[in-house]
Write a structure and sequence with these properties.
It is built from two helices and 15 strands. With 254 residues, the protein is mainly beta. The strands form three sheets. Strands 1, 3, 4, 6, 9, 12, 13 and 15 form an eight-stranded antiparallel sheet that branches. Strands 2-5-14-7-8 form a five-stranded antiparallel sheet. Bound molecules: magnesium ion (MG).
């Protein structure tokens, strides 16, 4: 009992202390720090956390029409990837698919699946490789790292050759996985130098794998990244020669 009373006393003292931190507060009323306008916008959420909320831009809904309407190949022509069973799959050699729309800051939801049939000869970067490029420059790696080791800053959930994921939360090949990305575009000064680098937070299958990391520049396979000023740019999905599938792609502009 004594201990409980002491606890209440200490807690009460801390609260009182906190309330008196700023002597100016004695002159204030509670409503002076309660802001009503502008009212926070109402958004109807999806049925579950994978379904697009009402204010999302739907980039791919599983239909061939949606792919044609929202994406091109790198030459601006119709994408060469195949659509079946509500998803779009990389067709080797047809190149990237690029969103027609360009984006700056966003919240992205995308689902991906490594090929169910694993070639036992394939390993490291050769197994289920694809990628999601923010603003066509910054690659969030897509790779089958279920029982498949590669360099840590190149595995699924990494910003390729920049930031390894905090954990490996890959599901088995053939199972659907999710990425939810909060992305802040880089800002550039009038002289084209960096004002603030790109930043990103990523959840893979609901687990945090990138915590507000700062990107060093556009993804480079060889060498050191270096920023070059740019504006809004498309989302790009990589053809790395493996039949990786994607579905339910939506984005909220921030
Ligand atoms: Mg890749």
């Amino acid at each position: 009992m004594k201990r409980i009373l002491l606890g209440v006393f200490v807690l009460g003292s801390i609260t009182a202390f906190a309330q008196n931190q700023n002597p100016e507060n004695a002159k204030m009323k509670p409503e002076m720090t309660e802001f009503w306008d502008p009212e926070v916008a109402v958004v109807t959420p999806g049925e579950n956390n994978s379904n697009a909320p009402a204010d999302a831009v739907i980039l791919f809904d599983g239909t061939p029409e949606s792919l044609l309407q929202n994406w091109t190949n790198s030459k601006g022509e119709a994408p060469g990837w195949s659509v079946a069973d509500n998803c779009v799959t990389v067709v080797k050699g047809t190149g990237t698919i690029n969103s027609k729309a360009s984006f700056e800051d966003f919240q992205l939801h995308i689902e991906w699946r490594s090929p169910a049939v694993v070639d036992p000869e394939s390993k490291s970067q050769g197994r289920g490789n694809s990628g999601i490029f923010m603003q066509e420059r910054y690659e969030l790696q897509v790779l089958d790292n279920y029982n498949n080791r590669t360099y840590r800053n190149g595995q699924a959930g990494s910003f390729y050759k920049q930031h390894p994921p905090l954990v490996n939360v890959c599901k088995k090949p053939g199972e659907w996985q999710t990425y939810d990305v909060i992305y802040t575009a880089p800002r550039f000064k009038a002289d084209s130098t960096v004002f603030s680098p790109a930043r990103a937070t990523v959840l893979q299958n609901g687990v945090l794998v990138q915590n507000n990391v700062s990107l060093f520049g556009p993804t480079e396979y060889i060498g050191i990244p270096k920023y070059k000023a740019h504006g809004p740019a498309p989302l790009v999905l990589q053809d790395h020669g493996n039949p990786v599938s994607y579905r339910n792609i939506w984005l909220r502009k921030l």
